[in-house]
Amino acid sequence: MRFRFRLDIKRAILVLMTITVLILIAVKIGEQDQQEELPPETYITIVNKDGENEKIELERFVMGVVAAEMPASFEDEALKAQAIAARTYILSHCEPYGQPRHGEAAVCCDSTHCQAYVDELELRVRWGENYDKYYAKIADAVLATRGEILFWQDTIAETPFCSTCGGRTENAEACWGQALPYLVAVDCDYCGHSPKFSSYQRFTLAEAASLLATDIDKLYSMQVEAYTPGDRINTLSIDGTLYKGTELRTKLSLNSAAFNWLIIGDNIVFTTIGYGHGVGMCQYGADGMAKRGYDYREILQQYYPGTIIHKDET
């Protein structure tokens, strides 16, 4: 009896060991299969904030761009649309879609030249106790659209965006002189909740005359000569001299080229609608559309009409 009992224990141990080995093999095979199913990572070279070339995984870079360019509190579908716009711009400067903007580096982290970007350390400071929640939210939006980019017919699209269009976007040629069939003025009834939907700025007549390099008396002759398709000022004249609306916007640091003015005593007050150039996607409009139940595909169609979503296979 004692011998048989010991034999049964040995058999049980052998069975348990066999089962354990089989489980470990199954787990290993499952991990290998899962790894094989994951798409390969794409790396790009950027110019970081220190002015140095840095190799970084594409989707991680897109996360940092979305975090820098759009409030993390925005709706998920708006964040997805922003992710595709950002990814499309980045890949438009990578082979095989286009050429890098900075030697070997595709883009830089300067928003005035390429796109803004913030890394994990900066985001921890910016978001504080909301870091985990916001990072997960943006990561979900980026990974849910992994590899998706916008095309116009057989060419990768240009995907500019602005904060607040103020009710109507703008034709590309009105800002940059080049027309594109999918960067055209469209009505936008979704950005009214933007804090910069409307604003005003006051100058003394002397300040305005100095900024515009003209005489105070000539400011009284200022008038609009033509409007853009997006209802912004195309040209205006000051005592017979023509100026572009975008030129005055820059000189006076106005929020947009959709402005009007009123001279009151020794002051001139400019009122503006919207914030930014107005071309392409209106970010607050995207958020407003998402709040009304539109998904990211519908948002992109609203602001880049006629484009289609492709899956990058590079």
Please characterize this protein's 3D structure.
The protein has 314 residues and is an alpha+beta fold. Among the domains are: 43-159 and 295-311, no CATH class; 198-273, no CATH class. Helix content is 39%, strand content 20%. The chain contains 10 helices and 14 strands. The chain has helices at 2-37, 58-69, 76-91, 120-127, 131-144, 172-176, 205-211, 245-252, 283-291, 296-303; strands at residues 43-47, 53-57, 107-108, 148-152, 155-156, 161-162, 198-204, 223-227, 233-238, 241-244, 259-264, 267-273, 281-282, 308-311. The strands form 5 sheets. Strands 2-1-3 form a 3-stranded mixed sheet. Strands 5-4-14 form a 3-stranded antiparallel sheet. The N and C termini lie far apart (69 Å). Residues 1-7 and 12-39 have low confidence and may be disordered.
Short summary:
By secondary structure, this protein is an alpha+beta fold. It is 39% helix and 20% strand. Among the domains are: 43-159 and 295-311, no CATH class; 198-273, no CATH class.
